[in-house]
Fold these 4 entries.
Entry 1:
Amino acid sequence: MGCAMAERDPEILDKLDLVVSLLKAQDDRLRAMEARQERTEAWQHEVQDKIGHMENAQQAMRGDIREVKGQLSIMLTWLQSMDQRFSVLMAPVTPPRKPAAE
């Protein structure tokens, strides 16, 4: 019986080596997947930060546009007022008629 066991030792050791190498390969793949996931999460965080900055810039631009629209509206009202005044000033002047001599 001791002899049969001794003959199987190399076979058992080979199978154990195979199991250990399979576990190591599986562990390596798992570590690679974890590293890839970490890179993906970092990239997603970067993208979300950029989107946040873009949204903030867009909000600021909307505020600027509202301000410019308000200023343009005031300027248009002023220009219309000036146009009316200019039109009145540039209207042809008809000299007053002299009363007919009696």
Entry 2:
Amino acid sequence: MRTQPRNAIEAFSLLLLQWVDVSFPAQSREVSKLNHLWFSLAQALCGSHRSKIAVFQREMAQLRSTVRAGEPPIQALEQRLNELTQAGLREYFLVIAVRQAMEQLILTEYPPALDQWKQLADDMLPLQIQFARQSNEMPSVRAILRPDVEA
């Protein structure tokens, strides 16, 4: 992973990695509890697509036997987020929505690590970018008021 992210998805991945490193030192990590967190995130991002969830599970299994055990499955996560943006979700909106979902998961799973998450998240991915446009995005020239009426 790059230290300087190229886009919001990479910035989110870096945020997750930094949060794990700061909040859960490798020698005392509760790997199964962290993997449960990543599995919950995978389920939220993939819904009923079992094959997509399996990609997350395979990466977590690979990490489990390394010094990186308990880290998020970054490749699977980035792949899924990229799929969602290619399907039409705006990258900044998606990343901030997932950032906020992670806050709720952390509140449930690791309440003592929530303040650290919020601090890192505010520094790396401020909420204000949620509705920002990327430079290559063109604003819509017409507004849709109702499905059957356009302005």
Entry 3:
Amino acid sequence: MAHNDNLYIVHLSIHGLIRGTGLELGRDADTGGQCKYVLELVKALGRHPRVGRVDLFTRSIIDPRVSEEYGQPLEDLGHGAFIRRIEAGPRRYLRKESLWRYLDAFLDKSLMLFRETGRLPDLIHAHYADAGYIGSRLSTLLGCPFVFTGHSLGRTKRQRLLDSGADSQASEKRYNLSSRIEAEELALDVASRVVTSTQQEVEQQYSGYEFYDPDRMRVIPPGVDVSRFSPPGSSPVPAHITEQCDRFLDAPAKPAILTIARADEKKNLATLVRAYGESATLREQANLILIAGNRSRIRDLNPGARKVWTELLQLVDDYDLYGHIAIPKHHQPDDIPAYYRHAAASGGVFVNPAWTEPFGLTLIEAAASGLPILATNDGGPRDIIANCENGVLIDPADVPALTATLERVFGRPDEIARWSENGIAGVDRHYTWEGHVARYLEEVGELVDQISQPNLITEKFRTSLPLADRLIVSGLEERLESGDAEAIAETARIVRDNTPQLGFAIASGRSLGAARQLVEELGLPRPTSSSPSWARRSTTAPASSKTPRGPGILPTAGNPTRFSKSSPNYPASNCRRRKGVSISSRFPTTTTRTPHLPGGRCRNSCARAAFPRRFSCRRGAFSMSSRSGRERARPSATWRFAGGFPSAAFSSTPDVAAITRRSPATSSPSWVPITLPS
């Protein structure tokens, strides 16, 4: 549709190492298939004629242990696609389980980026739980549709750990599973669409969540770049690839059993080595080639990878697999397609023995290269093998069965040839990026015109609030009627003529319906906001105060601000600045269930607010601490702005309305009184 052209789409993928070229897949547990999928999707969207711009927001990393590229604020991917890196928390590289406390900082910086670019996104798509938390908050603040892809889910991981006999407390401490699951629940509650790669994810993995809604879920299998992955004969195998494998092998001409995965316990590489080592027949039939990331010295690897490689090398020695297994230490990203072609040319197969596999991009890459697949009977492999008819499913826990299956496959070379041809044709039919993007835009395009956020947005309402650098805040009482009607009209004109730089907010304890009615009767400007609930009161407010649920309504308990020619200056001198902490989006906008994310501690069992680490909920006072100091509000009514306005701060007295402006040179807030013309 013409009105959907020039779309601006934002993708969020917070953890791992992401850059436009030379992805370091397998470097650690966080840099894997998700990073590759998101990057390829962003590039493919940029090439589509309906998309004007697509940004991938990820975390900025400045660390001597990784490339300087991961600290560049902006990376141009071509065709209107960009990577934008945002500072959040320490500069150094952190594993995803350590990022939770910094997500609100990422949220604030994202809002500031939208202000700098001067355009709000038409769609936000978040990947994994951490980005899901940020994306759901951005969506409700900005009033734009939200799409979520979990990639892997916390409840599934928790169950797998329990089934393996892992200690629940130790698992919680290591993986922050409770925080992850709560963030996934929040994302599922807010999302207009949940995109999955397989039907199994919809039916078995997401179904365990409280906000599971299959009507909002869409299965859109990812694509593969067929220009990079092609069968033998399309391009020669580089000599260095052959040399890296052959130097390990006594009989390099044998067919190859290839596996490519990062050195992670959940990839279950040890089972494949055991299945191979248990059979003298299989060792006579084929060689084993294992590509599991890059390594120089095993003791320098991260603990998880070090444990995996230690076990693998022990198995090699136990089964005396020297001369039968190739384990190259280093490879470049561009070498991966050549490894597939090398194995396919030998008449080999590709094996994915992972414990769980949400999708499995390596399986599509192998199929496109003409390499038959044996893959775990879980998730994506079920759909891929059903669509392509190019392999067989295996039980990742059954070593003897895997051994028998491999022996049988290599005893049937005609079946290997048939599977090879089927895989190439199946990828062309089902798994190209062009087809993926066309289906993707078909599913999400309608959301641009009609927002569908359960329990949150019931009417289409877009906001200019993040683009504003000043804000007028007014009370709302009947006594406003005694003010000067001309002054009210002039205020409305000022707001209208200075949008989006100037925003307008209402501070009221009234219900949403009553507040809207009075706004209409008085002729006040429509409050600038992004969702039906964009502010929450702190626990210092009187218990009898009601929390309204309307656009731009800030609950208060106090006297209203009067509009009058006789009192044209707003008393900005009473405003107290909040130093050192951005207070732009500290309270969530969900209606039915909001999690306490890590660091939040509410001593009053507050069920409707999630306090970040540097906030604490106390009876009679609202505390806020930061690096630059600690302030405690008076135990009267105290309110905090929560609508995506990074430079906003408010008085502890509810009868104050003022503008705050952020200086481009210093980025520090300053209070500016508003003077209405007489």
Entry 4:
Amino acid sequence: MYKIKELAELCKTSAKTLRFYDSLGLLKPDYVDKFTDYRYYSAYKIDEYNKIAALKDMGFTLSEISAMKTENTADFFSIKLKELEEAETELSNRVQKLRETAAFFEKEENRLKLNIIETVSETSCHLAYIRVLAESRENLDGYFAQLTEGLDKMKVKYEKQKIVINFDFELSGKMDLGIAMKLKEATEIPDSQNQIKVIETIVSDEIRFITKNTEIEAAYESLHRYLEYRESYCQCGVSTEIYFREKGGKSAETVEIRIPIYKSGGDNILEKRSRESIEAELKNHPAKTNRGDVEIGRWQIASCVPCKEMFNTKKPKFLFDEFTFSELYLMPDFGEYWSVSWRRGYIRIHGAGGDPIYWQYSIEEIDGKNYMFVEVTDYYRENLKLTYVYEKMDSKEYTLDDIRVYDRVDYEFECDPSVVGKWTVYCFNRDKDNFSPYAVSEFERNIEGLYWKHITFNPDGTTVEIFGSRSETATVNRHWTKGLILDKEWKIAPQYELVQVNGIYYLFVEWKSGDYLFGRMKPCHYVFLKQ
């Protein structure tokens, strides 16, 4: 007989793994000392462990391996073979698609003959501009004439080189452009000249490339692909197009496009204030709000852009379709809901790691409406630097009960025999409609890291659920009825659904966290297998 550490050494695994297999009923010890709880194993258990390890290498889950002890093993091999064949087909299709895409990119880049250069802008400059929504870049000369006439009347000195500011990051609809000239020195434009504005370009890393004026849109498409393949890069300011007139030519044939970028995780020129310095600043701020503070009330997402200057009330722009914070409720006396509170000048996000995150904001009145510009570091999207723009919807003094979602939980019990019993977590899932057992990511399948471990549906309409981390767990008792788990304390009712894939039933249960309760987001799912 071997002690657990001796068996672990022979099997080239850990005692922790053997204890875990024991808890699942996969590899039980031959004898447990009732006084010391020491586990003892026979030599036969080495073969059993090797069999489990071999099945895992073939792609079987521990739940499936456990089920093989009581069900027809041949059926499991048949199903797994079918899964792997489908995965092989899918992988083959992806390889083919990748080859075709790579060939297309190579052909397109050669056609455009773009020499994309990563560099650093040497200095900032001031650009006077007139902002327009244009169908195309043709016939912009009239706007340039209007701009130069206005600057001449104000006796403002400028360089006579045409520049176009591109306030867009997408190639759809009318183009949001600024017809610009570079000022020789910083100049304030009187409010009476409300068509002419001044913008200061930022000093940052940037991408530059040169193309013909007839191929600007194709050049931008190429640039977007360049950024997409560098996930840690993102645009952080407006693009500028500098037009060069060919010698003896009547029109500008060559255009240099400059796009400022932020490199996540690298040495960035853009300043980043530390959390400590922000909290030191906030210590001197008042602890109470004032009645009538413009911040208080509900704010609705109006745009998501790389920088504040790109926002245009006449052309809403969104880098993404889904937002964790599509609404913000700024409560009196800096009240907190979900993971959100605020301080003067900052939105405060309380992260799971314990340390809060601060997003700086500013508020401006545009066309009679208040807009909040929030400088965001999006940790879910490669730490991208973004600006979320929120429109003020009302000035109500909200409470927690006003904000959160409440489900109906007073249902009569109706038994569902198909789910009665104990279920063990299989994975976490964000897209139920496209679920595939052989396409689960390492993050979604990290069993030890998943918070919801087990759920048992009892025939009397109660549940026993195990939640927890690696260091500690907790048991929760709730109620259920057909199709729903009923949490009468929190007043939520997660739905469950059985989904059959290749002959195996997977139980999908909605995970109604704060994202649902306060963010009104569509719930993700925990996926379970019957034990």
